Amino acid sequence: MAGDAGPTVVFVPDVGFGPWLWGWQAPALSGRYQTVVYAPRGTERSDAEGPYTVDRFAADLEAVLSAAGADQTHVVGAGLGGMIALRYAREYGRARSLTLFGTAGGGDDVDESALRALHPADPTRLRESLSLAFSERFLAETGLVDDIVAWRREEDATGDALEGHLRAVREFRADPLHELTLPILVCHGLEDPIVPVDAGRTLADGLPRGRFEAVEGKRCCFVEHSAAVTDAVERFIDEDTPTDG
Q1: What is the pTM of this model?
Q2: Range list of H helices, the chain
Q3: How many independent structural domains does the chain possess?
Q4: What is the CATH number of the domain that holds 223?
Q5: What pLDDT, on the 0 to 100 scale, is given for residue 129?
Q6: Which positions ≥6 away from 202 have C-beta within 8 Å?
Q7: Which of 106, 149, 221, 223 could be joined to 189 by an S-S link, Cβ 3.0–4.6 Å?
Q8: Confidence bin at 244 (pLDDT 50/70/90)
Q9: Domain range for 45
């Protein structure tokens, strides 16, 4: 946990990704909020024991927040992390808002072949796989490609754990959406090759207090455009869930 004041914001990564994924948003928000970044089951050095289901991931998130002493929290999730956030808000009482990136309302909206290509079994193809997550310009100009590949080698899920993550996505269904009445910001990369942007719009439309925002970029648009996205998340939290109570 980082930060010493304000409400809690917890970050839940996408399929297979370790906590490195939030190395842009979490530090930027830790000045005003207590930020929690953790390694989901099967990533980094976390418990890899199955079964892997969205329900179990949500229970893990509840355990993390309970241990952190977070009575109320804003949940930020990407992909599978967004699915976990939706289930968590339904089953537990701590969530004040959700911010979702590249999240589908069901596994049928996910291109599993593209998702598998983002997580190649051959680690020498990790660099190549980043073309699904980032634009060519970002990869050419950022100077972080070697670092991202190293972080993925160190933290990302592989083998049975990765298969468990993929299975959790396939089996997920968020319905009925109308029961989720908390504020939910749905952000989506316009060129996301794994979940089409229209699936994000549909998800937002089905939520009573859903709001949709398109973001330039692919799967990891929130990394590529981290400053603008972080500002949008912060505005959403402040506008829809005032932090004075």
Answers
A1: 0.95
A2: 25-29, 54-68, 80-91, 112-118, 126-129, 136-141, 145-155, 159-171, 197-205, 221-224, 226-240
A3: 1
A4: 3.40.50.1820
A5: 98
A6: 105
A7: 221
A8: very low
A9: 8-240
